[in-house]
Design brief:
Layout (H helix, E strand, L loop, with lengths): L6 E4 L8 E4 L36 E5 L1 H4 L22 H12 L13 H9 L5 E3 L8 E3 L4 H11 L2 H8 L2 E5 L1 H6 L1
Antiparallel strand pairs: 1-2, 3-6, 4-5
Helix pairs in contact: 4-5
């Protein structure tokens, strides 16, 4: 162990498979290594051992689709996306309108007639930049549309109290998918 810097391979006199021994917490075949265990890794209220997604609570906030779009027969102008409400002349509706135009729809199209990709882009955002036109004499702008769900989650976690209360109307707690994967 001294000459092998903490690792050793043992082969039997009669042959056979070699056995690996190590003082390090590392698998010799896969190379996966672990830190030396410490008591705080096993404490429920220590950030060292906690799941990074849920901070060790076992639950995360998730947006409920049925709470955001309760009536798919409505158009967005008529309030199909409850988090937006009925149409107002605002920046967010300009962005939503640009997303819809990008897919060949408008604010008066009922949600049930839209392709799933359109609704997914509205709710989850778009990867490619979006050109939003202005009708108040300003030049068109290119923006990154973040989506309605990320905005709700941001408000639920980091917004002021009033915004957190508003966001709570569209969310519920679910078991953490990261913790479930490791259980």
């Amino acid at each position: 162990m001294k000459y092998g810097k903490g690792s050793l391979m043992v082969v039997g006199v009669k042959g056979g498979d070699p056995r690996y021994l190590s003082r390090h917490l590392m698998c010799p075949t896969s190379g996966i290594a672990y830190e030396e265990p410490e008591p705080n890794l096993f404490s429920f209220n220590s950030p060292y051992g906690a799941c990074p997604k849920c901070s060790g609570l076992g639950q995360v906030t998730e947006v409920a689709f049925d709470k955001i779009v309760p009536d798919r027969k409505k158009s967005i102008r008529k309030g199909a996306i409850l988090a937006l409400g009925s149409y107002k002349s605002s920046w967010v509706f300009k962005q939503v309108e640009a997303v819809l135009e990008n897919f060949g729809y408008d604010l008066d199209t009922p949600v049930e007639e839209m392709e799933d990709a359109v609704l997914a882009s509205l709710l989850n955002g778009m990867d490619e930049p979006l050109r939003v036109s202005s009708n108040v004499g300003l030049s068109d702008r290119t923006v990154q549309f973040e989506g309605i769900i990320p905005f709700i989650l941001e408000q639920a976690e980091e917004g002021p109290k009033a915004a957190q209360k508003w966001a709570a109307g569209f969310t519920h707690m679910v078991a953490c998918p990261e913790c479930k994967a490791h259980a």
